[in-house]
Amino acid sequence: MEITGIILAGGKSTRMGCDKAFLDLGGLRLIEKVAKVLSLVCREIIISGNSQDEQLNTLGYPVIEDIHANCGPLAGIYTCLSAAKTQYSFVTACDMPFIEENIIARIIREANGFDAAVMKHRECLEPLFSLYSKNFIPAAEKSIITGNYSVTATLKQVRWKPIVFHPQEIPFFDRKIMNINNPYDYHLAKRLEIK
Prior knowledge:
- The chain is α/β, with parallel strands linked by helices.
- It has helices at about 30-40, 55, 75-85, 100-110, 135-145, 150-155, 175, 185-195; strands at about 5-10, 25, 30, 45-50, 65, 90-95, 115-120, 125-135, 160-165.
- Helix 3 packs antiparallel against helix 5.
């Protein structure tokens, strides 16, 4: 199955105080670390973000601006799924520097024709680290038009499947799905990168 990688980089990074996509971690910017892993499983990579952002445009991937502005990650998913050349796209946030190919590959492998395959662990869903088909587009558009910007709520409109991960099965699981949301997370990630 050919997959497009979608990196969500349109957030305001208010808790971080600066654009977290470009924070350095081990000699690479966070978004570069994410793109490097996605490139192992994806035919193409596109970035959801401000198409006028000079830094995003230096990465060598198409930068696609949301069709519906200020509607959160759902708008980024909607816009990029519409632009993707493949039926399925793997969506991830730009601030997950420790993601691994094997975790992404398992989600893709277990999708089995569903409209979305969403990582689930400890009863938590991770809709911003999941696989979506183009069949999700009409549901996303409907949600946006009605003012419901929740990705999780939009899943209820499509055939979706939770892909259950048991943290004890994967060494350092919490690290591998860690988001960098604030200066404390960034400090912790720098310490983990050294180990």
